[in-house]
Amino acid sequence: MSQPTPANEVMEPAVSVRDLAIAFASHRVIDELDLEVQKGEFLVLLGPSGCGKSTLLNAIAGLLDVADGEVWISGRNVTWAEPKDRGIGMVFQSYALYPRMSVRQNLSFGLKISGVPKTEVDARVDKAAQLLKLEELLQRRPAELSGGQRQRVAIGRALVRNVDVFLFDEPLSNLDAKLRNELRVEIKKLHQRLGNTMIYVTHDQVEAMTLADRVAVMRGGTIQQLAPPQEIYRRPVNLFVAGFIGSPAMNFFEGEIVAGEGPRLKVGDAMVDLSRYPFSTNVSPGQRVILGIRPEHLAVGPAAVGSVEVESQVHITEPMGADTIVWASFAGESITIRTDGEFNARPGESIAFHFDPARASLFDAQTHLRL
Amino acid sequence: MSSPRPTVAAAAPLERPANRQKSVERGRKPKRLTPGRIGLYAFIAVAAAFFLLPAVIMIFTSLKSMDEIRDGSIFALPQHLDFSAWIAAWSTACTGLSCDGIRVGFWNSIKILVPSVVLSIAAGSILGYALSFWRVRGANVLFAILLLGAFLPYQIFIYPMVRGFSLLGIYNSLACIVTIHVIFGLPVMTLIFRNFYAGLPQELFNAARVDGGGFWRIFLYVILPMSTPILIVAAILQITGIWNDFILGLVFAGRENLPMTVQLNNVVNTTYGERTYNMNMAATILTAAVPLVVYFVSGRWFVRGIAAGAVKG
Amino acid sequence: MTTRPRRLRMATFVVLPAWALVLAAYVGTMVWTMQISFTDSKLLPVDTYVGFDQYERLFSSTRWLVSLQNVAIFGVLFIAGSLVVGFLLAVALDQHVRFENTLRTIFLYPYAMSFIVTGLIWQWLMNPGLGIQKAVQNWGWESFRFDWAVNREMAIYAVVIAGIWQASGLVMALMLAGLRGIDADLWKATRIEGIPPWRVYLFIIVPMLRPLIITAVVLLSIGVVKAFDLVVALTSGGPGIASEVPAKFIMDYLFTRQNIGLATAAATVMLITVASVLTPWLYFEYFRKARPRGAA
């Protein structure tokens, strides 16, 4: 049941959420939320548990009644349409396969209900099975499949519906790490091959960074930042996004802007020259700010021009194979540095490290917004 | 005794399949006979005797002749196997003026049982499904009233019901007693199905809705095929419950349809003249036979039924 | 805003008859019962309102007062007895004894049988002329008495014994399931610390099983209030009114003694008592921790 998009509506967003509110009992978990997803885009909703990302997805799917606002899919207002009439396919975290049906029956159930002719059903099922390498498994029951196979069947169930928009609700969370990586790649390939619009909910930032065209970082029912992954990584708009994205987490230091030639930051005893930092707003002397530096933007060794150099003692090191995480201190606070796997230092040893303020992030200490 | 495991986490996951290994792991298996162990087995022996003796005596008595009962001890073994009391109980025992045996009650009970069990399970499963998966206005209030219905004694409802059924003109009929069993079975049936369905993943229902299933289609093709364990539990609960019912059958069934329990009580407690204890015991055993067969055949499912009936999902 | 949702129609449609049934069969009858209790109805309901006269009559009736006393004795002893016996049986079976399955089957089978059957069995066992009493006296213990079912002083205790015999297996099954659900690591921890098993059961396991114990108490209490069949089969309320209980009192006055005003007053008292105990439990059990279901 594809929803053909008229030629004159090419620029129409595939999914559009306008002024949305969702309430459980009388408590509004989402309020005044707007979101536009472009046709063919892979959008990831990312956030900690309870941030409202799955609620938003369920509202788009029509599985939840909205309290206010509208949902548009492929140019139609579907706010009160049944899930089946929205032109969506959905993949669930627990796979949600019908346990008493074979894989083939699972894939064809929805098509049969909507009265698709049998030959067409078979053709679509076979095509999806081929695409997802399920041909051998069509006669099996879900209980006889591995976790990865089950999730491929679940994806197939969305695929056969021939819809423009796919919704994924944490589809890889129940899989072990290795399978997760494999299926992640498969989903990305699938998106490249089919070009459908995909909205993907996850709490795993690796999935978000690798899959997304754009990421919407959510918290407390609101979208904190909606941008391509690199942008979110490089220029987080606030302290929450900065702290949520990246592992190990960004290092934060509170300090004060001091006057001089160009803005400078006093963090503990150290002075950080901010003349190379790309400010987007003005700062004034005396303003309390928070400096954020990613562990991978810190480097051990003498500084290049324009960088800030610090001496510190090593507390512990955590060799992780490819890299080694060094715990040291800066301005009285603990700091983590990501070095390459060859780095070797004993606890107590004194090391020099440096960073380029141009790659750091500055946030207002009160509003937590990026400066 | 091994029970088939349902593929879904079911209503009463009280029976762990791995409990045997667990106990071994616990390492409390004794290696020799300690005084504590002897005491334990003594307690178990006394308990087993307490539970078993009445049944043994009942069987013994039913196989004795009346002379043997009068002269001998209640604990004594029957001198020879004499099934005449059983035959008498089945086909000639008297209630009031009719002497057609307890078999009349048996067939009445069957006639009441079959439609009551089928209808009450059907009603309970559909209502439980509607209340757990479909957001229905006022579902909680309905559920609360149902709960009260499940726990309040019949005495509170019974008289107006008698009047009501009289007005409808079906009082004292098979239809009446079946309706009554469906009405009083509805709360517990709804409860156990609702609890079971609450344990099924909501995502499954969501998937079926995205696939375009409506109320009945999702129920018939997705939910019902997964309900086998709870259907078995419901059947056990209803078969034993309705068969063992006395008060409803007494009040609503009418003279023509009195269930076996009522007839048994009449046979034993309202006979005049000499009491035939051997026949009474045989009739009692016959009346207990159906639920006992269900009990022995169903094994662990019976315990699951208790747990589900205990409405502790 | 756009149009209201048209969805959920079939679910609503299915629930409507249930509403009708519940309102008519439970709420309606309950209200009717209460209404009759304020009238002067005898054989048939009449509309002569007499205020609380029936209640006054009820509480000056010896038969009713004896019923209340009996149900209290029966309730306390039956519940306590079934809990203790059932719990001990469960603990005993949890000691990894031989023939566990057989023993469990033996302890539970009475629960599969009706109260009528149970009552008739025990009536026979307590038969003064031919039952256990006679057998034991013949063995030489001349003063042995086990004629409880026909003994004015002991009749209600006969009901208690028969009840415990029937219902202990239920408690045993519930408790055993609970014991089997206890984490094996807990037993390992208590062994390392050297706590004797009986202390573990009493001070660690029993508190852990509290929800199950409450459930068992509720189930047994329902049995107490509904105790009608057992009394009818075992003693018919006798000798005299010695083992009369409220459930039987109400049935007698409704259907044989033709005083439905008095009977419905008694039923109303029963309703208020049960509801005042039940409502808090039901609330805690079902609604306080009711988990929110995700979608429609």
UniProtKB/TrEMBL annotation, chain A:
Keywords on record: ATP-binding, Nucleotide-binding, Transport
Location relative to the cell: Cell inner membrane
Name the record gives this protein: Carbohydrate ABC transporter ATP-binding protein, CUT1 family
GO molecular function, one term: ATP hydrolysis activity
GO-annotated cellular components: ATP-binding cassette (ABC) transporter complex, substrate-binding subunit-containing
Superkingdom of the organism of origin: Bacteria
Organism, as annotated: Consotaella salsifontis
Family named by the database record: Belongs to the ABC transporter superfamily.
NCBIfam families: PRK11650.1
A Pfam short name: OB_MalK
InterPro entries the record matches: AAA+_ATPase, ABC_transporter-like_ATP-bd, ABC_transporter-like_CS, ABC_transpr_MalK/UgpC-like, Mo/tungstate-bd_C_term_dom, NA-bd_OB-fold, OB_MalK-like, P-loop_NTPase
Key word Nucleotide-binding present: yes
Membrane topology: Peripheral membrane protein
Chain ranges of the ABC transporter domain: 15-245
From TrEMBL, chain B:
PROSITE patterns: ABC_TM1
Lineage top rank: taxon: Bacteria
Provenance organism: Consotaella salsifontis
Entry annotated with the keyword Nucleus: no
Domain annotation ABC transmembrane type-1: ranges: 106-298
Family: Belongs to the binding-protein-dependent transport system permease family.
Compartments, record wording: Cell membrane
Protein name: Carbohydrate ABC transporter membrane protein 2, CUT1 family
Disordered: annotated span: 1-30
Pfam family, any one: BPD_transp_1
GO CC, one annotated term: plasma membrane
Topology in membrane: Multi-pass membrane protein
TM spans (from-to): 38-60, 112-134, 141-162, 168-197, 218-243, 281-303
InterPro entries hit by this protein: MetI-like, MetI-like_sf
Keywords: Membrane, Transmembrane, Transmembrane helix, Transport
GO BP of this protein: transmembrane transport
TrEMBL record, chain C:
Coiled coil: none
Domain (ABC transmembrane type-1) ranges: 68-283
Pfam families in UniProt: BPD_transp_1
GO biological process, one term: transmembrane transport
SUPFAM superfamilies assigned: MetI-like
Matching CDD domains: TM_PBP2
Compartments reported by the entry: Cell membrane
Keyword Transmembrane: yes
Signal peptide: none
Gene Ontology terms: cellular component: plasma membrane
Superkingdom in the source lineage: Bacteria
TM region positions: 12-34, 71-93, 105-125, 154-179, 200-225, 260-284
Keywords: Cell membrane, Membrane, Transmembrane, Transmembrane helix, Transport
Gene3D superfamilies, per database record: MetI-like
Topology with respect to the bilayer: Multi-pass membrane protein
Similarity comment text for this entry: Belongs to the binding-protein-dependent transport system permease family.
Protein name in the entry: Carbohydrate ABC transporter membrane protein 1, CUT1 family
Species assigned in the record: Consotaella salsifontis
